[in-house]
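Let us practice reading a record.
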Amino acid sequence: MIKDKTDLIKYSKNGLYCEIADIWIDPHKPVKRALITHAHMDHFTFGCDEYFATYETSIILKERIGSQINIKAYDYGTEFKINGINISFHPSGHILGSSQIKFNFAGEVWLITGDFKRQKDDTCMEFEKVKTDYLISESTFGLPIFKWEDPQKTASDITKWIVSSPENTSILFCYSLGKAQRLLNEISKTNFKNNIYTHSSIYKMNNCYKKLGINIANTIQFDKTQNINEFKGSLILLPQSLNKGSYLQKFKNIQTGFASGWMSIRALRKRSGFDKGFAISDHSDWEDILKTVKESEAKNVFFHHGDSEALNRYLNEKKSINVLYFDS
């Protein structure tokens, strides 16, 4: 039995946990059962006995870590029951296969957003509005300073950046899964005609997206043994982990950029070491977090995965919303 209505889902250093179902959500350490919101590795841990995820997430995870994983896959909206609790996945709009997780127990609904975004993205399903009694929302960019521009404007800025420096090789760093595919999709809508090379980790995820029916622009797999002159005027997409001198030293004329929501902060752009920062995020900005809270019609809201102080203060002024805090 839960002690009171705020005890269905708890938070600990190992992640979010539903005691009745004995299941963790994106756990940080191996557990018996784990619900996985999406296939980014900071939301996944090796060694769990059993995993539950959307069909797309299960395919991507198998592509990344191997097919031996014991994972049960469900379509969006399909309910399954664990210890009397109805659980279902709903699109979160973060990346392909990403999900919100809905718990329905004794007529009471809890919703965990997972990482989510509300902007249009042709490479994944659109965020689904779900009504709930309790909302657990991410708040990665939970400050009023964060307000995303239209992604097509960002894509146009990227293409202008490349075309204006035809003697350079333009290297853009980004996440291999989700961000890279979204950037390629947005750039394909511009008039950019130059070659695009992608690191093997990105190329692999591009092919996985294609197998799952997502239209991704064709790219050339990057091979650093090629003649450096072949890359002049081209765009190379690399994971940010390779932003180091030893990897880039063979290039003579390069300009580097980084695609991230954090690049909307001028001070961070200057300190980043990149020549150019492009602010594009697969998380919601301030306005879309508030929009999501309102549309959920939740009277009780928790925040995690980010700075929630400003959100807590703002929502506490609205007497109809009860901002709750996880026990430490």
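A brief commentary: The chain has eight helices and 19 strands.
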